[in-house]
Amino acid sequence: MPEHVQERKPKISASRKLMLKSLMVAKAKEELEQEILVKEEEKQKYLAEKAPPLNTSSLSLAQLQDLCRELHEKVDVVDEERYDIEAKVMLNTREIKDLNIKVLDLRGKFKRPNLRRVRVSADAILRSLLGSKHKVSMDLRANLKSVKKEDTEKKRPVEDSDWRKNVEAMSGMEGRKKMFDAAKGPAQ
């Protein structure tokens, strides 16, 4: 591998790049403004076609009532169409969600839901798992080993039965001498 690698010089200078970027941004801004104007014109054409301006100045009361009835019928039709379209959109979004879940399942990657801590007894868990088959309540204390008090009392040495005597005997210099002698005694 060569140790001295020549750095490549850019084909376009920095000032030229900046100028081109600014021109591209200006062009994109113009196109965006034109697109907004075109959409507004289309909207005006559609409204003029679907809802022509009303001329109510020369109409009598009966004609105005007929006009109101016609407008109400049109509003009802539009509401029905809107409801149908919303139902289709909801159905499509639900289908899209289901398909996304299937895709994730096929990939093997799952989104983990946020889990909440729930306090559930052992009986409730067994009831949910086994359903109506679960009849016996689970008593966890029944399986514990029972300990008799008599066994623990028999294991204690008789010497420690009265702890006050032992404390009085070991207090002072005599108690320390006994401990020293006891430690020294088995070594001899």
UniProtKB/TrEMBL annotation:
InterPro entries: Troponin, Troponin_I, Troponin_sf. Residues 147-188 are annotated as: Disordered. One of its GO terms (molecular function) is actin binding. Residues 147-167 have a biased composition (Basic and acidic residues). GO terms for biological process: cardiac muscle contraction; skeletal muscle contraction. Residues 25-81 form a coiled coil. PANTHER family: TROPONIN I, TROPONIN I, SLOW SKELETAL MUSCLE. This is Troponin I1, slow skeletal type. It comes from Dicentrarchus labrax.
